[in-house]
Amino acid sequence: MRLPVHIRAEIALALVALLWGGTFVLVKSALSDISSLVYLALRFSLAALVLLFYFRRETIFRLPARSFAIAALVGALLMSGYMLQTVGLLTVSPAKSAFLTGLSIPFVPMLTALLFRRAPRWQEFVGLLFAVTGTALLSWPGEKLSFSKGDWLTVGCAVAFAFHIIALSHFTKQVGVAPMACWQIIFGACFAALGSPLVEKPFWNPTAATYWSIVIGGVFATAVAFGVQTWAQQHVSATRAVLIFSLEPVFAWLTSFLVLGEVLTQRAALGAMLIMLGILFAEVKPQPTEGHPFN
Predict the structure, then answer these.
(1) In 3-state terms, what secondary structure has residue 161?
(2) What's the first-to-final CA gap in the chain, in angstroms?
(3) How many domains does the chain have?
(4) Do the Cβ atoms of 136 and 101 come closer than 8 Å?
(5) Domain encompassing residue 123
(6) Which of 23, 62, 149, 236 has the greatest number of C-beta atoms within 10 Å?
């Protein structure tokens, strides 16, 4: 028996979180040999080529001007998140950056409620509380709570990622999966290339590991991941999507454990358990496709 489309979409988003979390160690190691936005420009350019080849029989170039504008907006939101995170990391520790970026989890339902007057279901609300608490336990570095310029930039990154998730859920059916998947990545690559000299000092000292990171990150963590996300978010609300994406740090730790032998602390283990409980709780009452807020 075939699963309902919204269940298949949720499983697909979980696989996207696995791809992002599973490639975290590879990307992190590559950034010692190449600056962040140069890496992103190359990674997104490769992903754009892969998506253009995959969707070569689709109508990608003959689009209304409005569809191009929407795809450009979605690509700008996506790359703005990466850029703000990159600049923030100049003064913010990686652990604190991960925690602040995780604020996109509560930002998505808050912004959805403001923009579309739709509050999360109570199951989703409780699930979000579990996920936010779990993310804090997994990533909070134990620093004193204070906000510097870098912290605020990283919060801006979380807002940009939240808007990106909301925009995909809202606009993909209007633009189409193939055009949205391709053009958001193409525009993202352009924004990364243009923004690199503005937000960092570009450098490029490639090794074999750097090339592998670009290939794996471009094909799997970008082309496949964002292509699948674009399709899935037609059938899953933005709130449900960001809840599933909270699995990413859990998958990142599992990769670190398997590849680097990193040990999970009791606090982090509790955080991972709360994230899993949050997602399971939100599934107490599955979301029917016709109940999607943007249909």
Answers:
(1) helix
(2) 25
(3) 1
(4) no
(5) 5-291
(6) 236
Looking at the DSSP bridge assignments, the partners of residue 34 are: 204
Q: What distances in angstroms separate CA 106 from CA 49, 117, 162, 242, 291, one per listed residue?
A: 34, 16, 9, 9, 21
The one-letter code for the residue type at 21 is: G
CA pair distance 79, 38, nearest whole angstrom = 12
- For 261: left if phi > 0, alpha if psi spans -120 to 50, otherwise beta; the answer is left
| Bridge partners for 204 per DSSP | 34
| Ramachandran region, residue 237 (left: φ > 0; alpha: ψ -120 to 50; beta: rest) | beta
pLDDT per residue over 262-295, tens digit each?
676 778 788 888 888 888 877 765 554 444 443 3
Contact 236, 56 (CB under 8 A): no
What one-character DSSP code corresponds to residue 120? P
Task: Render pLDDT for 215-239 as a digit per residue (tens, 0 to 9).
Answer: 999 999 999 999 999 999 999 989 9
The number of C-alpha atoms within 13 Å of 234 and in the hemisphere containing its C-beta is 16
Structure tokens at 78: 């996506």
CA-based nearest residue to 13, from 285, 283, 295: 283
Q: CA angle, corner 48, sides to 225 and 39, nearest 5?
A: 80
Query: What tokens appear for 207 in the block?
Result: 């090794």
Taking residues 16-29, report their average pLDDT: 84
Token output for 217: 């990150």
3-state secondary structure of 34: strand
